[in-house]
Amino acid sequence: MTPSDLTRVYYQIENEIESYRNELNKLSVPNYPSETCRELIIDLFEKLKGYEETLSKIMEDANDQDEKIVEQSLQKLITKIHIPLVREDTKFLNWLYKAQTKNVPWSFVHCVERLFQQIVPNQKLLIYCENQYNYGICWSKSETIAPYPYYVLSFPRLHKTNVLWHAVVGHEIFHPRCSEFINRHNQNVLTNITGEVTKNYEKFATTGASENSFTKKRDRIDSMTNVTHTAWCRATEELLSDMACVEIFGPAAILAMKAFSACSPKNDRPDPDNHFYPSWQYRFEIVWDNFIEDKLCKLDHVYSEIKNNDIVRCFKEDMLEIKCLVEKKEGEDLVKKHPLAKIAYQEVQNLILDAVDFVKDNTQDVLKWHDEKTLSQIPKLVGRLENGIPPNESVAEINEQEGIYNTHPAAIPAILISGWMYETYWQEKFNADEADERVMTYKTLSRLILKACEDIETIKKSQQCQS
Amino acid sequence: MSVLTKNVILEELQKGKDGSGLIITPLKISQIGKSSVDLHLGNEFIVFRKVSLPCMDIADAGDISKNVHKYQEKVRISDVDKFVLHPSQLVLGATKEYIALPDNISAIICGRSTWGRTGLIIATATQIEPLFKGCVTLELVNEGEIPLVLYPFLCVAQLILYRTEGKLSTKDKSRYQFQTGPEFPKFEKERAYLKLRRGKTCKR
Asked: Does residue B1 sit within a domain?
């Protein structure tokens, strides 16, 4: 290692910092749907400043011909600046590019940020569209660039404006809360899993002479316990997130999950190939049994208030279809087919009531689909959609004599449920070859719902200003 | 033709509360004047990409419609951002408010004199027909000599509502229905006319 090697790396890193700054400058120009991206850009500029200071400090310290010092300085340059910059920080450039207003469902961004703040307070959420057929959320300690981490939520790019599906973001934004539940029960579950795996080892083990040695057996049990434990963690996280999504958005969440999963097999059994991921069928069963079934009667009053009986009929038929699907309990049977999945999912089942309570406790601050305020808005919003009006507000009082015009901004679960109610009706109209120009297109429906999401922020802001 | 006054506008809004009559949303009572409703500028604009549009010829309207993104770009700015409109520049904007007119009410959209004095023209096609539903596209032109800075929510237009006489068919709908922001131009009618003209020319 020579001083010239160090100098070469120094110039390379200086160039990387400069290039990064140029990219950030370019990304400062476009429009973003919320302030989060601008704040992130400022934080990243700050981080670059930190890198520059570190760079100068390391080079000052390395002002020596001693090979050992040169070697140490080189290592510092690589680990403290080069690796975090090229491996972690560059991800943000990609996310920022994809988070520009033109690249995201901008009308919906504020609603998601608001919801996220209620579930994961005092954290930042960056929303972007990814070129994949999935919703996702990620965060990690290594991505911490400010006193707080930025959580990064992605929407599927090709479904950017397919707002009815976006009810599933309720699932994604609950992921960060799941570790609390998992940590709380981890030790007990691990003990139970170890016990079950040991008890059933003989059944799982493949025959073979070498397997009989004590060490081999212990290693195999450890390995199977780890796999089963990971399966439990995975299943618990997914199911908790599903539960939260359905607790907030109710039927809109179920219908969105159903629509999103329409192109995937419903009955994939959890096994090592799919990381013991719960099947869609099982997920529907869990959320239906614990969050929908007993609250569905709350919709009876909503149905009676909706003027178009066909809309009610179509929606009821769709809900009934899901009910029939979950009553088969095929998902529950599937998890028993793999011996390790059976153990992991038994632990999930044992904790299901705790999980339900945990979800309810952690969504207390959120306006939910079964709240009276939400339910009372749905019939009016359905009426608006039917007439080609954005379901953005429910007009409470108009008094022409006294010049009063009072409205309430619609709740997001009410907007999405009314949207789904209209969608089920729309499906029937289009499928029955009855389509005529009186029935709006799906694109128009999505557009009106997005406009409603945008408007509720305007109405809220204007009411805050007035008060 | 009788222009609707504040009381009548509120009466019509009351009738249309369920979504079937006059709707102007979102709306605050302070927007309703003696015989007009103030409208705000929305967040979206359509700007022409001059470098890739040689000229606008409706004879090529098919190509223009297909490649509309090549010629025009939708820009969305946030509530606090600026949009600078340069002298002689035309951009399309839209009202923040979504409007639905019943079959017996028509409307005219016009600029506000405050903005007129700066050279801002907000609409050239000012007539809104009964049964229209959507945000109204504004053709924003800066006729002044200095650049104008526009912000979303600026009160740039007024809606004057009046009653129409006679019955309308529900089929008589605008080609720009349900728009929630500025819309790219559609030239179907013009193209049909052009086809007709060409047909006649050939016969001669």
From this structure: no
B15 chain-A contacts, CB cut-off 8 A: none
Contacts of A400 in chain B (CB under 8 A): 7-8, 10-11, 14
Domain count, chain B: 1
> Which residues are CB-neighbours of A226 under 8 A, at least 6 positions away?
none
In a domain, B49, yes or no: yes
Q: How far apart are CA B82 and CA B78, in angstroms?
A: 8
Task: Look at residue B165 and tell me if it is in a domain.
Answer: yes
Partner-chain contact A405 B76, CB within 8 Å: no
The amino acid sitting at B116 is: G
pLDDT in tens, B103-157: 999 999 999 888 889 999 998 778 999 999 999 999 999 999 999 999 999 999 9
Cα torsion A246, A248, A250, A253: sign: negative
Determine whether the interchain pair B29/A380 forms a contact, defined as Cβ–Cβ distance below 8 Å: no
**Structure confidence at residue B167 as a pLDDT band (50, 70, 90):** confident
Render pLDDT for B34-81 as a digit per residue (tens, 0 to 9).
999 999 999 999 998 877 777 777 777 666 667 777 788 899 998 888
Q: CA B4, CA B163: separation in Å to the nearest integer?
A: 7
Question: What is the span of the domain harbouring residue B77?
Answer: 6-203
> Which pLDDT does position A4 carry in this prediction?
81
Q: A375 CA to chain B: closest CA distance, Å?
A: 16
pLDDT in the model for residue B106: 95
State pLDDT tens for residues A293-321.
Answer: 999 999 999 999 999 999 999 999 999 99
User: How distant is the Cα of A384 from the closest Cα of chain B, in angstroms?
Assistant: 5
Rounded to an integer, the average pLDDT of A38-59 is 93
- The pTM of the full predicted model, rounded to 2 decimals, is 0.91
Is B123 among the domain residues?
A: yes
Establish whether B139 is a catalytic residue. Answer: yes
CB contact under 8 A, B177 and A387: no
Q: B173 to chain A: which residues are within 8 Å by CB?
A: 437
Chain A and chain B share a number of CB contacts under 8 A equal to 98
Q: Does B98 touch chain A (CB under 8 A)?
A: yes
pLDDT (tens digit, 9 = 90+) per residue, A384-405?
Answer: 999 999 999 988 788 877 778 8
**Count of CA atoms in the C-beta half-sphere (13 A) of B15:** 13
Which positions in chain B touch A387 (Cβ < 8 Å)? 18-20, 23, 100, 133
| Interface mutation target, options B4, B10, B81, chain A, most CBs of A under 10 Å | B10
Chain B residues touching residue A443 (CB < 8 angstroms) = none
Evaluate whether B72 touches B49 at the Cβ level (below 8 Å).
yes
* Residue B14 exposure: Cα atoms within 13 Å on the Cβ side: 15
Say which of B10, B18, B19 has its CB closest to residue A405: B10
Q: Alpha-carbon distance A459 to A373, whole Å?
A: 17
**Tokens 């899993």 found at:** A193
Token code pair at residue A375: 């339910």
Instruction: Give the separation between CA A155 and CA A172, rounded to whole angstroms.
Output: 10
Say yes or no for a CB contact (<8 Å) between B78 and A32: yes
Q: What number of other Cβ atoms are within 10 A of residue B104's Cβ?
A: 17
Determine the number of helices (DSSP H) and then strands (DSSP E) in chain A.
20, 5
CATH code for position B127 = 2.70.40.10
Q: What percent of chain A has pLDDT over 90?
A: 69
Interatomic CA distance for residues A422 and A359, integer angstroms = 29
- Do residues A351 and A294 lie in contact, with contact meaning Cβ atoms separated by under 8 Å? no
Residue of A nearest to B13 (CA): A398
Enter the ipTM.
0.89
